[in-house]
Specification:
Keywords: Mitochondrion, Protein transport, Transit peptide, Translocation, Transport. By secondary structure, the chain is α/β, with parallel strands linked by helices. Helices cover 24% and strands 20% of the residues. The chain has a single domain, classed as Rossmann fold, CATH 3.40.50.1000. The chain contains six helices and ten strands; from the N terminus they run E-E-E-E-H-E-H-E-E-E-H-E-E-H-H-H. The protein is globular.
């Protein structure tokens, strides 16, 4: 039985995806035998990053800059605010110095869905919804090269208003408690903060919905058990009627 030639060659080939960051460059070891065929060894592309969609409400807390660096290292990150564009940009300029270019996208009120209702908390404030499907739809997405990479299985919305996720798949969002300016010693975004620890567990989770379902966090999602379900069910019905 013939053995492999002693002059078998080994060479490393770098495979790059659409990003140029070093953490996205994965190395294959390629072995060329005396038949001239290439075989792949030690192939390890690793898991792709999940997508976090964050509201500006998250950034009002202490440790927000360190928290953003933490998120950008472990996830793809997009910002989605229900505020007008100028207000969102002003906020990002204050809290995202040097980091804005690393975000996948920044959406404002224009990408939200106006429900046609006012919020229960403020009868003058429009109730805007964040339809996550828009992120995955090339008709809306301003990152067409990434369409198809993200779905309900690997995208998490983080918003302090549970009603924003009324039209989304179950277990694809978490809702931290709303931050108040007078709150002292708020450490939710700190190294040992509850949100950061929660996201550390999400990094290696198989998928987003399973992780969210098995790990309760923050405010509950709005379901038929919610005390204001009669109101929110009307919001959902109007949206479905508009689609028909």
């Amino acid at each position: 039985m013939a053995g492999k030639s002693e002059d078998t060659k080994k060479k490393a080939v770098l495979l790059n995806d659409s990003d140029s960051d070093s953490e996205n460059e994965k190395q294959k070891e390629v072995v060329e035998d005396d038949t001239g065929l290439l075989s792949l060894m030690n192939l390890n592309l690793g898991p792709k990053k999940k997508l976090l969609v964050l509201s500006l409400g998250v950034y009002k807390r202490s440790h927000c800059t360190e928290f953003m660096k933490f998120c950008l290292e472990r996830f793809e990150v997009g910002i989605w605010s229900s505020a007008r564009e100028w207000s969102m940009i002003n906020s990002l300029d204050c809290i995202m110095v040097g980091l804005k270019s690393k975000m996948l996208f920044a959406w404002d009120q224009e990408q939200c869905t106006d429900s046609g209702f006012k919020t229960l908390e403020n009868k003058h404030k429009p109730l805007f919804l964040k339809e996550m499907g828009k992120i995955w739809d090339k008709k809306y997405c301003n990152i067409p090269s990434r369409v198809g990479e993200f779905s309900a299985s690997n995208t998490l919305l983080i918003d302090t208003n549970p009603y924003k996720a009324l039209l989304n798949h179950p277990n694809t969002a978490v809702f931290p408690t709303d931050y108040k300016a007078y709150t002292v010693n708020d450490d939710a975004l700190g190294p040992e903060g509850e949100l950061r620890l929660y996201l550390e567990g999400l990094v290696d989770a198989e998928d987003v919905p399973s992780y969210v379902k098995d790990h309760s966090f923050g405010q509950p999602a709005i379901t038929s058990m919610h005390p204001d379900w009669d109101f929110y069910s009307k919001v959902i019905r109007r949206h479905r009627q508009a689609e028909d």
